[in-house]
């Protein structure tokens, strides 16, 4: 078994794909809600759905950016590396 230096589980997986699909689902409902409330002359609800639309769109851009960075992404030089706990007794 290869030695690990972090505390993550050996079979860890990212939830970015699930988050991507949930955001797409939320985007569809935000667009639908904005259009429906505009057509029914409810401007405050339309504004609320529009704000949600913007938030979900920004979240989608962040998710796709993280997915494109790949599984081997490492933070910049300003983030110190994780020091494994010292198990020596």
Low-pLDDT segments, ≥5 res: none
- In helices, the fraction of residues equals 55-70%
Q: What is Rg?
A: 21 Å
Query: How large is the share of residues in beta strands?
Result: under 5%
Mean of pLDDT: 82
Number of helices: 2
* Strands, count: 0
First-last Cα distance = 23 Å
Order of helices and strands: HH
What does the main sheet amount to?
Answer: none
- The general outline is elongated
Class based on secondary structure composition and strand pairing: mainly alpha
Distinctive features:
2 helices, mainly alpha, single chain, 89 residues
Task: Give the SSE layout.
Blueprint: H1 16-39, H2 43-69
Helix pairs in contact: 1-2
Descriptive notes:
The protein is built from two helices and no strands. Helix content is 57%, strand content 0%. The chain has helices at residues 16-39, 43-69. It is mainly alpha-helical and 89 residues long.
Quick overview of this protein structure:
This protein is an all-alpha fold and 89 residues long. Helices cover 57% and strands 0% of the residues.
